[in-house]
Design goal:
The protein is mainly beta and 276 residues long. The chain has one helix and 17 strands. Strands 1, 2, 3, 4, 7, 8 and 17 form a seven-stranded mixed sheet that branches. Strand 13 and strand 14 form a beta hairpin. It starts with 12 loop residues before the first strand and ends with a strand.
Length: 276
């Protein structure tokens, strides 16, 4: 499986696992799916559409996808407004314009899925009031080895959950190709306890081979997002069940993965990933 993650522009709710556009802002992480169809739903403020991917894995021992679930009826609501998502066959994704259903801090959202076989899936989430932290970071690279460190202060006596994403920017070096791509190397969930005021984190890892295969690397950075406990558990389960994560999204996964799910009667994640 190859996942090409790109940045995205302003104001979107993402329910997503794979992106093929070259827009910029939020990127979901790579994950190994469980044996059943999986929905990944990120509610965020970095794009103007809601995207929902609903896919079936090839097998429990394979990271590829067998196909997309295209005939489900999917609704997102906030208690006052209910909007149905439509399936975009060209991009193989369910979509909804966020002008029809904006994402607001403090509001609760429910996702309802009715499958063609009569089964239903439901999940709810609330958007946190807090914002991602202002942080300092350092990034360095030696061949395929990466070193990242970041730190931030938070004096509020509040429990918070954050997501830090480690990114690289590459430019295609093939003749006639000028594409610029942004890839997610790692997604790091962080929990801040109420009494915790200082957070420091260092990550060292190797992707296993030279990433110049993807083009000239000319940028490394870290982005921070505000998430909730469900998203924290989800990203933790992804990390703990990927013993051999590689840069292109493949891995040496050889057993079923207990990816965290907050859906009722189904597999999936619905949660906030907010930039401000």
């Amino acid at each position: 499986m190859q996942l090409n993650f790109k940045y995205f522009s302003k104001s979107l709710i993402i329910i997503s696992l794979f992106f093929s556009s070259c827009e910029t802002d939020f990127d979901p992480t790579i994950f190994v799916p469980p044996a059943k169809p999986f929905v990944t739903c990120y509610l965020t403020n970095t794009k103007s559409q809601i995207l929902l991917y609903y896919r079936t894995p090839i097998s429990v021992n394979d990271t590829g996808w067998y196909g997309n679930v295209t005939n489900a009826s999917i609704f997102l609501e906030d208690g006052l407004i209910t909007q149905q998502m439509y399936y975009d066959t060209s991009h193989k994704v369910y979509k909804l314009d966020t002008n029809l259903l904006p994402i607001v801090k403090g509001h609760t959202y429910e996702l309802n899925i009715m499958n063609a076989d009569g089964t239903e899936m439901h999940a709810t989430t609330s958007i946190p009031y807090y914002e991602p932290p202002v942080f300092d970071y350092n990034a360095s690279r030696n061949g395929s080895d990466f070193h990242y460190s970041f730190s931030f202060s938070d004096s509020s006596m509040q429990e918070k959950y954050f997501l830090f994403q480690l990114l690289i920017t590459t430019k295609c070096t093939t003749t006639g190709c000028n594409d610029t791509n942004i890839y997610v190397l790692k997604s790091i969930p962080i929990y801040k306890a109420p009494e915790q005021t200082q957070i420091q984190k260092t990550i060292n890892f190797s992707i296993g081979y030279d990433i110049t295969f993807y083009g000239t690397v000319y940028g490394q950075t870290i982005e921070a997002f505000a998430i909730d406990k469900d998203m924290f558990n989800y990203f933790n389960s992804v990390a703990s069940n990927m013993p051999a994560q590689h840069f292109d999204g493949s891995n040496a996964y050889s057993s079923p993965s207990p990816i965290y799910s907050n859906f009722k009667s189904g597999n999936g994640i619905l949660g906030p990933v907010m930039t401000e």
